[in-house]
Amino acid sequence: MQNPAALLRTVFGYDSFRPHQEDIVRHVIAGGDALVIMPTGGGKSICYQIPALARDGTGIVVSPLIALMHDQVSALRQFGVRAAYLNSSLSLDAARHVEADLLAGRLDLLYVAPERLLTARFLDHLARVRPALFAIDEAHCVSQWGHDFRPEYVQLSILHERFPEVPRIALTATADAPTRAEIAQRLALQRARHFVTGFDRPNIRYHVRVAEGNAREQMLRFIGERHAGASGIVYCLSRRKVEEVAAWLVSKGLTALPYHAGLDAATRRAHQRRFLDEEGVIMVATIAFGMGIDKPDVRFVAHLSLPKSLEAYYQETGRAGRDGLPAEAWMRYSLADVILLRQFMDASDANEARKRVERHKLDAMLGYCELTTCRRQALLGYFGDARAEPCGNCDNCLTPPEVWDATEPARMALSCVHRTGQRFGVSDLIDVLLGKDDERMRRFGHDRVSTYGIGRALHEREWRAVFRQLVARGHLHVDHEGHGGLSLTAAARPLLRGEETFTLARQHSPAKLPKAGRARAPADMAHGDALFEALRAKRLELARAQAVPPYMVFHDSVLAAMAALRPQSLEELGGISGVGARKLENYGEAFLVVIRAHTAAPVRTG
Q1: 3-state helix, strand, coil in the chain (%, to 5)
Q2: β-sheet bridge partners, residue 511
Q3: Which residue from 165, 325, 406, 542 has the least number of CB within 10 angstroms?
């Protein structure tokens, strides 16, 4: 059994474990079961890869996505690890070759889809070898209350029944306390040690605003001013919107690709490969895209629609900044998003209990959006990870929102709903409050109700904020079967009677959003550095020769360290974090040639 710290250094090129990693690694090496909750980018894979290398036998990794397996195996092979995968993308001959390697003990790690693992053939193979461990990645897929339920995961308790002596480690980035309990129960991990390392992603800056004006133009300015030339993901609620936004970004000179379940499989694969293999590609997608994406240099995740839950939001924004460098999560949302999501929920085949949970999750998502306090504190608090101080790295911390007493406007809005018959939508009700003089007002007699014209003190966008929060907080119900008409709920009565107050954040216009400095990545810090650009060019050349993404050769942070330190020997280059023994052997001289050429040249100034 090999020393885990030595493996970390020689194989992966890191001098020390990240927080909590070593405790988890040593626990699993010793044969213990573990449930690991660790944020995206926190280094979950090391927690089972090192034990698999340290223990006798092959580590079996259950993974839900074909693309994830392919990328993780490709990355491990770059480090010299004997890794392979088994899934439906392989031909029969290729699958048989992998099985032969497993039976002959020629593999350190084998990634397998849950459907393949549960077959009698594969379980028989496992009985003939000695698995080093079972790692169940994306373990939240076992939870029926989670955001990505996979029915095959429920059957994975068979691993404990068939192989009780083999340690198991289940890992996920997103699981609140009830979900953790469900994972442990469904996977028979009740006796496993829980490692909840915290949910904080301090390198991500959060920006959330109501969509006022042209949200696309605002997003374009955000990308241009803060992330020009960077890779990013834009999430939209519908396939049609994905197609429209992708085409629009292309028309503005950006490299953008659509991704949704309506595209054929070949197109989805091609777009995902371009996103992974190229630099500066923006993926515009529905939630069908993203799970298992290992691309470390995604500098921003933008939402042009409201996610359905904080779990989904955390998972989606967590795809930014996996390399630990500064990244941003930007969102614009609207009341139309709320109505559409609730319509989806009501029309689903789920039972009423499930729908009730989903509604509560959406309400929590809306509450997060309308916060006037630190977003990171609220996001972490939702997952039971208390933070004592505001983060100083979200929009509310950088530019605290102005709070106003909206009790009277809220009562006016509720009264207007009542006076007009509880069947009209937001736009019609705002027209009444603002005293709009047109044929429609006269046709319905709205110009004669007591609330006609009483709301002229507020702008239309302010009234939309009032109605949005009245819906979000449950004072008003939206008629999904009709045309979005609003009606009063029981929760509206105390507010109408003056027994409750109603406060809101005064929304900033786009021009007033905080400009707290651009999120800086290594490419920014080395901007104009000819050596850094030459190292990137060499990396791209080597990556294309092997048909792998550039980041699998070296991350940007490694190239930035090379440019700053300018090592002159293999020994010096091997001392840089992220340069393992196999990568030093394969790429060391090629990068040293580039470094020496630029070190010998005179430094240009001015």
Answers
A1: 50, 15, 40
A2: none
A3: 165
The answer to whether 495 and 407 have CB atoms below 8 angstroms apart is yes
The answer as to whether 512 is a domain residue is no
Q: What is the pLDDT of residue 290?
A: 65
Cα–Cα distance list, 568 to 531, 580, 581, 584, 593 (Å): 14, 17, 17, 13, 9
Pairing of strands 486-488, 476-478: antiparallel
> E strands within 430-565?
476-478, 486-488, 503-506
Find the CATH number of the domain harbouring 532. 1.10.150.80
Give me the pLDDT at residue 77, please.
Answer: 96
Q: pLDDT tens digits, residue range 216-232?
A: 999 999 999 999 989 99
Q: What letter represents residue 140's amino acid?
A: H
Count other Cβ atoms within 10 Å, centred on residue 338.
20
CATH of the domain at 376: 3.40.50.300
CB-CB contact of 79 with 580 (8 Å):
yes
Task: Look at residues 383, 400, 417 and tell me which one is the last residue of a structural domain.
Answer: 400
Q: What is the mean pLDDT of residues 315-335?
A: 90
Residue written as token pair 């966008």? 461
In a domain, 156, yes or no: yes
Residues 299 and 209 in one domain: yes
* Residues 173 and 77 grouped into a single domain: yes
Q: Are residues 236 and 317 in the same domain?
A: yes
E strand segments, 420-493 = 476-478, 486-488
Share of the chain above pLDDT 70, in %: 93
What is the Cα–Cα distance from 45 to 376, expressed in whole angstroms? 25
Higher pLDDT, 362 or 356: 362
Q: Which residues constitute the domain of residue 108? A: 4-196
Segments of 81-203 assigned E as strands: 83-86, 109-112, 131-136, 168-172, 193-196
